[in-house]
């Protein structure tokens, strides 16, 4: 099956598609909107076909390829929003950081940042550094029509963890050693990354993104006191920098149940919740005035359809009293997920929540 002839879900009408933005703003919606983190990716055979022989970073720099990959799950699943296909390290690569995404490993940095002199690697990001992003988003917004496009970036802490560790880590010993042992250097590192991240989000918004999400993938490794003191200021700086655009801002991290209230303080309009905390409890922790996004366990999709639908109803029931709810998984789509299970899940959520 070619990429251009993937199974096509029934496309939503304009009011139907705008449910995502309405939910972000806590406005009445015709149904609970659905999209999936990592919906454009390895779970789709059409994605694997178009990516064949092309490295991840190179894929992110080809506007036509980015456009095709971003559109694939919209065609197949009928989701209420597209998520821009990229990677959180793209802005770092764009400013000259010597890194690569190694299959089976993840981002690997050739010269980790460990000293103040190493900060010289982090120059400002200019729009021309990522001109391919502007081009791709222009192409996408023309193709998507009424379906919103979500831009995204990695949060300063998660980017810092890669830069200081030199690659993925389970313990973050080098990053935490800097955070505890040289708090001034740590603060300066995150402040620079906040500026780079904000600039990357601004490029996406100005090109036509309807919303943005800040992924703080590894923030769950932190105690609340450390998050408040050493991470929150940089994330807040990012959200403040793009506040004037008026687009919904989403904040998401994994294993962040103990941090939900602090993540809310950072300034996003929507707080993403992983699968560990029920949506009603998450709402209590986040506090009033925010929409919530989540939070089906991604592994549920490997169970029979009846079990998926039952667990989905648990999520919807826990979220029934929220002012704004966007249905999503509690983390990204796993590579071996059956795409048809995602298509059925979108239809199930839409059908059960029609108003």
Describe the structure.
The chain has 355 residues and is an alpha/beta fold. Helices cover 45% and strands 10% of the residues. It contains 16 helices and 9 strands. It has helices spanning 14-17, 19-24, 45-51, 56-60, 63-77, 90-94, 131-144, 156-165, 173-181, 183-207, 224-230, 232-241, 260-265, 279-286, 305-318, 339-352; strands spanning 82-83, 99-102, 106-109, 149-154, 211-216, 249-253, 270-272, 291-293, 325-326. The strands form 2 sheets. It has a 7-stranded parallel sheet with strand order 1-4-5-6-7-8-9. A two-stranded antiparallel ribbon has the order 2-3. Strand 7, helix 14 (279-286) and strand 8 form a beta-alpha-beta unit.
| Beta-strand content estimate | 5-15%
Q: Please report the total strand number as a whole number.
A: 9
In what order do the strands lie side by side in the largest sheet?
1-4-5-6-7-8-9
Spell out the helices and strands N to C. Answer: HHHHHEHEEHEHHHEHHEHEHEHEH
Q: DSSP helix count?
A: 16
* Inertia-based shape: globular
Taking pLDDT < 50 over at least 5 consecutive residues as the criterion, the unreliable ranges are: 1-17
Give the CA-CA distance, first to last residue. Answer: 36 Å
Determine Rg (CA atoms, Å): 19 Å
Portion of residues within helices: 40-55%
- Major beta-sheet overview: 7 strands, parallel
Provide the structure class.
Answer: alpha/beta
Q: Overall pLDDT, averaged?
A: 94
